Amino acid sequence: MFRKPFTVKSNTNLRNSDGRKLVKRLHEKTAENVPKKAAIAHVPLFFDDNPAGMMVPTLYEAWNDPGCCPILVIPQQAFSFLENGADLMLPGVIINEAFQMPYFEKGTPIGVAVLDKQRKVRGPFAIGIALLSSTAMQSARMQGKGVQILHTFHDHLWEMGPRNQPPILEPDVFQRQMGIGLVEELQQDVEELHVSDEAAAQEPRAAVEENVGEQEAGPVDTEPVEQLLERCFLAGLRYRLGKSAALPVDVGQFYSTCVLKCLPEGKRLDVKKSKYKKFGTFLTEINKNDAGPILTINSKGKGVDVITEINWEHPRLTRFKITDERIRDEEATGGQANKKIFIAEFLAVTEPMMPLLNATGSKWSRGELVQPYEIKDLVTGYVKKENLNDGKMVKLDPMLSSISTVANEKTDWNTLLQKIQSRMTKTFVMTLPDGREMVKKLKMPTVVFKLETRSGQKKVTIVNNLAAFGLDAKEIAHTTQVAVAASAATAESPLSEGLQIVVQGNQVGFISELLMKTYGLERKYMDGLELAVKKKNYFACWRLLNRMDERRD
Predict the structure, then answer these.
(1) Fewer Cβ atoms within 10 Å of its own Cβ: the N or the C terminal residue of the chain?
(2) Residues 104 and 156 in one domain
(3) pLDDT of res. 149
(4) Last residue of some domain: 155, 184, 213?
(5) Per-residue confidence (pLDDT) for residue 443, from 0 to 100
(6) What is the pLDDT of residues 248-273, one digit of tens each?
(7) CATH number of the domain that 51 lies in?
(8) b/e sequence 116-153, b meaning 16+ C-beta within 10 Å
């Protein structure tokens, strides 16, 4: 509903009578929790989708008062479908002991929260209207369309407010919502209860005390220290240090600011209790593998080691997947997203490649993502297995000939690998600043810089396609405006994915540096960098002028 831009035609001060009419269209508990006027200035709280029905809360109201509407939980990867305009399908809703189906009627506003990779519930990320009652959904065995989505995180209604991030929802939110619509029935059941035997009353109490004791004991953490250290090291290297880090980096500083900060909640890491005893020994051991070292470490003196080079294409880095590691620092408001962008390049398996891949003995499926080096290893293994190696050349059997489309009987290794990889679909997986993952095929979008001359021979810098990388154009425009003391604004443009930035003067150099250093966007994903003002060596110019004056004298 708010995926496209909208304009506010007029603002009207409500009369007290009109305000009371609107309050009557809110849930009773929601009306009690609506804040004062001064606290909600310029923050959209409700919108009117059906004049005859209930007012629909915005995400800001749902974050402020999670009890304003029933909440359903979906996996994180399912939210991308809602964000692209789809309605909520019931098979995607998580229903278990922790997240039970709340009670609601058809037409009730529904919030949709997300279960992230750290097993934490955040949100809501979307607001919609129930197309069926909760009873009808369960009768249909959770099949079909359940909620019509009206408002999502990052849409234009969200941009109208302060653009906060979704908070973490505590378990008691879901416990409280189970009482919606059932309070009266529970009260009647309690009134009808009669204790007939004192022993019967004491027996459940003993069971409860026993269960409480078990809960207080808690599960025993059996994860080896070495395994915890390795996954925190990989998470810290990939997500906290990042490709945009300025090398060299002190090893001790990397351990304290990157590795330790990735520790999962409730866990402690003591390297002395591991087989390595020291972090330096761990780095030496992890560099000993068939794929080569991950880090290059140089010594600058006794006890001073620095990281001078990182192999970002190393298999252990590219294959690493987050579980419960903390890759960003969370604040009291629910945690601000990490601003870094991480882009991994893959090749997607296509139908013509299936015979060759299956001939290597591994099972592959169409669309599966693999690294380019994996294809090289698989082709090399197949050539050796079939005895097709002929020095620097490779003999082409019928399978290799059909896949590579090379007409000759032999070809060199580079040509063969390039031809085979060209038969696969180039795929890019982006981890956006807000934690979402986005998949792009064939070609990556680019941030495009342009210079235009406006009235009065004034130059302006135009930046397009920031939204393609999950970047907030308004935030970047404000940062640029403050830093360079020039006017900056955002506008809609058919040439830009999302909002376009227009800045006074030639600011290509500053904005590109901001994108690379603050957000981790690599230079190859930006076009128009040659338009930046060349840095002048004023000291050299001054010496040249002095020499010219001396010659004249």
Answers:
(1) C
(2) yes
(3) 92
(4) 184
(5) 85
(6) 888 888 887 888 888 887 788 888 88
(7) 2.30.130.10
(8) bbbeebbbbbbbbbbbbebeebeeeeeeeebbebbbbb
